[in-house]
Amino acid sequence: MRVIVVDHPLITHKLTLLRDKNTSSSGFRKLADELVTLLAYEATRDVRVVPHHIETPVAPTEGVILAEPRPLIVPILRAGLGMLDGMLRLLPSAETGFLGMIRDETTLQPSVYAERLPADLTGRQCYVLDPMLATGGSLIAAIEFLFERGATDVTAVCLLGSPEGVEATTAAVAGRSVTLVLGALDERLNEHGYIVPGLGDAGDRLYGVAG
Ligand code: PRP
Ligand code: URA
């Protein structure tokens, strides 16, 4: 698995504000949206394109346009929803599929509770969005889901990752075409499976505490 930690002062600046426990939900949503747009620029570096002939007002020329089938963006509900608009801003012609996953806070095991994805992902480039890569359980399950449907390559965009999560994901997807783009690689997981220093529960900070 290729791991890219995007090193840019604007990303670090926005992540610092995002991590701050005093940042409001509306501020958090705005920062997550801005951050994903910055990360998406790096995440789409290998998006497939095809040659395309056009005529400018001055001369004919060859350019490129996005190839078919169009890329598929897959936000992992709930927290990944906070990254969808920012990604679509950069890839407006992409399609979106949804995967709802919840991590059991005792066992830390993920389970899928909702799915709305094309049945056949053959040849599709997929972009998975989830702000947090903690143990890696949720991302690994999501990537396996997409490969089982025929996806050929998957790029995951996460705001924060842990070394444990990166290691587990690297082992689980060995031999597959997977890229992980991170805003930052944090220090470790704590005994509750939370990223340290992290930002807390991303879903709760975006949308409020779920019952
Ligand atoms: C969070 C986060 C990831 C997962 C990461 O979701 O958005 O999906 O935890 O943890 P892992 O790497 O250990 O699997 P959560 O299950 O809290 O659901 P939510 O987005 O609905 O809050
Ligand atoms: N999920 C979160 O939202 N935050 C963490 O730190 C770990 C899992």
Structure description:
Helix 1 (9-19) packs antiparallel against helix 2 (25-43) and helix 2 runs parallel beside helix 3. The chain is 31% helix and 32% strand. The termini are far apart. It has a single domain (2-206), classed as 3-Layer(aba) Sandwich (Rossmann fold). The chain has six helices and 13 strands. By secondary structure, it is α/β, with parallel strands linked by helices. Strands 1, 4, 5, 6, 7, 8, 9, 10 and 11 form a nine-stranded mixed beta sheet that branches. It has a two-stranded antiparallel ribbon with strand order 2-3. The model has no long low-confidence stretch (mean pLDDT 96). It has helices spanning 9-19, 25-43, 84-90, 137-148, 163-172, 202-207, and strands at residues 2-5, 49-55, 60-66, 72-77, 95-96, 98-103, 110-116, 125-129, 132-133, 153-161, 177-185, 188-189, 195-196. The structure holds 1-O-pyrophosphono-5-O-phosphono-alpha-D-ribofuranose and uracil (URA). Residues 79, 132, 134, 193-195, 198, 201-203 line the site of uracil (URA).
Oligomer: single chain
Task: Give the structural class.
Answer: alpha/beta
CATH class: Alpha Beta
CATH fold type: Rossmann fold
| CA-atom Rg in angstroms | 17 Å
Order of helices and strands: EHHEEEHEEEEEHEHEEEH
- The proportion of residues forming helix, as a percent range, comes to 25-40%
Q: What small molecules accompany the polymer chains?
A: 1-O-pyrophosphono-5-O-phosphono-alpha-D-ribofuranose, uracil
What's the overall geometry?
Answer: globular
Low-confidence stretches: none
The fraction of residues assigned to DSSP E strands is: 25-35%
The largest pleated sheet is described as: 9 strands, mixed
Supply the number of structural domains: 1
Mean pLDDT: 96
CATH architecture: 3-Layer(aba) Sandwich
Distance between the termini: 36 Å
Say how many strands there are: 13
- How many DSSP helices? 6
GO molecular function: GTP binding; uracil phosphoribosyltransferase activity
EC number: 2.4.2.9
Cofactor: Mg(2+)
Family: Belongs to the UPRTase family.
